[in-house]
């Protein structure tokens, strides 16, 4: 026989459940503008009907409902959309870093313009042609020297600026790794809190959101893979448990960065008492991963969390992209060895520096070679026009072999005495015995024209093109790389925005929807309260009215 108060209990349950739904709606509305917040809902389910299941249960016409209960308060998320978002964020982080560095390098080279290296070199060639017309004019000679100094200064500016840009990229890598290490530690801390709460049958939704928000940030830097590990105990079936966060590699393997409450830290170099191993010093040789022990000491980490060293020796080992890879590819990393057994440094900025150094070296070498074929106003053979910084003797080969874009200078002897410019050629005349002897003509200016024609001289070391053409090729390639980086950054940004909107349509709080839900739950609450009133009146009749005939 059913209880007289059964309907009262069913309505009471309905009252409490709708009240919980109203509280959850209020929580959603309060967090409508909270970054990373996922809207929550109360999962309602009917309670067991009457009578229960068994051989000795009373016979009735059918199960009679006993009300409703809130089984759990669950956040609304789509794991597949989250995975898509992190993949697109990872790509965007890479192309943003690469595009940013290329844009800065384009600003430094500043080509084509009226103030870059190409303009300085053109003015230098033009001054040599003017000197060819007036080889004995002191003013023309002074202009040649000043134009040459401007060329050297242009090389210095580009070299110093790119080196500074490289240094800034290294600092940014250090900041990124510090941020990454902080994120890994926070994820492990949240895992520990979640593991402590879930076995009691609760759903720590706000902790889930905080953890997912950190993983979203981490996916900007590195390609990561996550795996849920159930907490056990009395955890709900829909509880998410702790997360294992792993770094994805090209060979299909993964390296754990967070495993429950355990977490790793990343270094650009191994454990070193002199440095923190975070900010790179020189080309990046690999990514070291160390485990933080309970006593806060560190040991190298392998995939099974033993004390074997785990190092990613090649930046291409990452299966995807990420901001870290974009920065390292710009800053410079060592990959492979050359014919001499020395490590090869690759990267956007080191390669540009190497190309500029080669260009400066070959330009100075060829110009010096032609200059030495001429004679100055005194009829003396020309000497090195461009020298390495700090050179004592301009005629010493050591003064030119080490020339780079950062240390190319005009010889101080020529700066102090422009008459030393070998603008004339040194014609040779044949005597009766077939011996050629020098016949200087200090005023003919023919060698100045030869020097001007260095502009068009093809040089083997520069891929058999002239210095001018080689530099134009560098600028052209940089422009192509910049266009590609910008285009792919735009594509990644577009895709990420599309996924972001899709995720927002699922997980974000809609005030209109919440207002609708509020009215719905309010009306349901009122209806349950009214039902309790009806049952109260019914019980009043039974309790106070039965046995009183005629009333």
Q: Which tags fit this structure?
A:
551 residues, 12 helices, alpha+beta, 50% helix, seven-stranded antiparallel β-sheet, three-stranded antiparallel β-sheet, 16 strands
Summarize the structure.
It comes from Ureibacillus manganicus DSM 26584. With 551 residues, the chain is an alpha+beta fold.
Largest sheet: number of strands, sense, barrel closure: 7 strands, antiparallel
- Average pLDDT, rounded to a whole number, is 85
| Helix percent band | 40-55%
Secondary-structure-derived class: alpha+beta
Distance between the termini: 28 Å
Shape: rod-shaped
GO cellular component, one term: bacterial-type flagellum hook
InterPro entries: Flag_bb_rod_N, Flg_bb/hook_C_dom, FlgK, FlgK_helical
Subcellular location: Bacterial flagellum; Secreted
Domain Flagellar basal-body/hook protein C-terminal: 506-544
Describe the structure.
The chain is of the alpha+beta class and 551 residues long. Among the domains are: 6-76 and 511-545, no CATH class; 109-163 and 367-468, no CATH class. It has 12 helices and 16 strands. It has helices at 6-30, 79-109, 117-133, 138-197, 205-221, 323-331, 348-372, 398-401, 412-416, 446-452, 467-507, 511-545, and strands at residues 40-46, 68-75, 224-229, 242-248, 254-259, 262-267, 287-292, 298-300, 310-312, 333-337, 343-346, 374-375, 386-388, 408-410, 424-430, 436-440. The strands form 5 sheets. Strands 3, 4, 5, 6, 7, 8 and 9 form a 7-stranded antiparallel β-sheet that branches. The model is unreliable at 301-311 (pLDDT under 50).
């Amino acid at each position: 026989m059913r209880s007289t108060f059964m309907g009262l209990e069913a309505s009471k349950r309905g009252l409490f459940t709708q009240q919980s739904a109203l509280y959850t709606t209020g929580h959603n509305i309060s967090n409508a503008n909270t970054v990373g917040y996922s809207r929550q809902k109360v999962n309602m389910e009917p309670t067991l009907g009457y009578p229960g299941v068994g051989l000795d249960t009373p016979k009735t016409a059918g199960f009679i409902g006993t009300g409703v209960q809130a089984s759990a308060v669950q956040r609304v998320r789509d794991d597949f959309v989250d995975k898509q978002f992190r993949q697109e964020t990872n790509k965007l982080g890479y192309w943003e870093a690469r595009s940013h560095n290329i844009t800065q390098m384009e600003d430094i080279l500043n080509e084509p313009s009226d103030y870059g290296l190409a303009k300085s070199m053109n003015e230098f060639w033009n001054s040599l042609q003017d000197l060819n017309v007036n080889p004995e004019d002191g003013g023309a000679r002074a202009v040649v020297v000043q134009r040459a100094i401007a060329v050297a200064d242009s090389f210095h500016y580009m070299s110093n600026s790119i080196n500074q840009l490289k240094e800034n990229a290294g600092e940014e890598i250090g900041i990124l790794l510090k941020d990454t290490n902080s994120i890994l530690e926070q994820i492990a801390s949240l895992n520990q809190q979640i593991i402590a709460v879930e076995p009691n049958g609760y759903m720590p939704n706000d902790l889930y959101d905080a953890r997912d928000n950190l993983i979203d940030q981490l996916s900007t830097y590195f390609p990561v893979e996550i795996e849920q590990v159930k907490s056990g105990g009395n955890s709900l079936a829909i509880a998410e448990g702790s997360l294992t966060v792993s770094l994805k590699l090209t060979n299909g393997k993964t390296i754990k960065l967070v495993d429950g409450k355990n977490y790793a830290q990343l270094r650009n170099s191994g454990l070193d008492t002199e440095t923190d191993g975070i900010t790179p010093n020189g080309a990046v040789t690999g990514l070291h991963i160390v485990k933080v022990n309970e006593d806060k000491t560190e040991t190298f980490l392998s995939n099974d969390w033993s004390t074997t060293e785990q190092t990613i020796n090649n930046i291409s080992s990452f299966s995807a992209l990420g901001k870290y890879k974009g920065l390292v590819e710009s800053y410079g990393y060592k990959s492979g060895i050359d014919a001499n057994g020395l490590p090869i440094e690759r990267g956007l900025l080191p390669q540009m520096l190497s190309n500029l150094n080669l260009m400066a070296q070959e330009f100075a070498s060829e110009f010096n070679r032609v200059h030495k074929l001429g004679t100055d106003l005194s009829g003396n053979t020309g000497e090195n026009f461009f020298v390495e910084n700090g050179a004592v003797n301009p005629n010493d080969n050591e003064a030119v072999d080490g020339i780079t874009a950062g240390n190319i200078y005009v010889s101080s002897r020529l700066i102090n005495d422009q008459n030393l410019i070998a603008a004339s050629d040194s014609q040779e005349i044949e005597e009766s015995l077939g011996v050629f002897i020098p016949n200087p003509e200090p005023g003919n200016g023919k060698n100045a024209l030869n020097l001007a024609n260095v502009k068009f001289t093809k040089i083997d070391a520069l891929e058999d093109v002239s210095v001018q053409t080689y530099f134009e090729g560098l600028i052209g390639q940089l422009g192509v790389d910049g266009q590609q980086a910008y285009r792919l950054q735009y594509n990644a940004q577009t895709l990420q925005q599309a996924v972001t909107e899709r995720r927002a349509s699922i997980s974000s709080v809609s005030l209109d929807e919440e207002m609708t839900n509020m009215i719905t739950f309010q009306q349901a609450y009122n209806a349950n309260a009214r039902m309790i009133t009806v049952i109260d009146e019914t019980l009043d009749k039974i309790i106070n009215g039965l046995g009183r005939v005629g009333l």
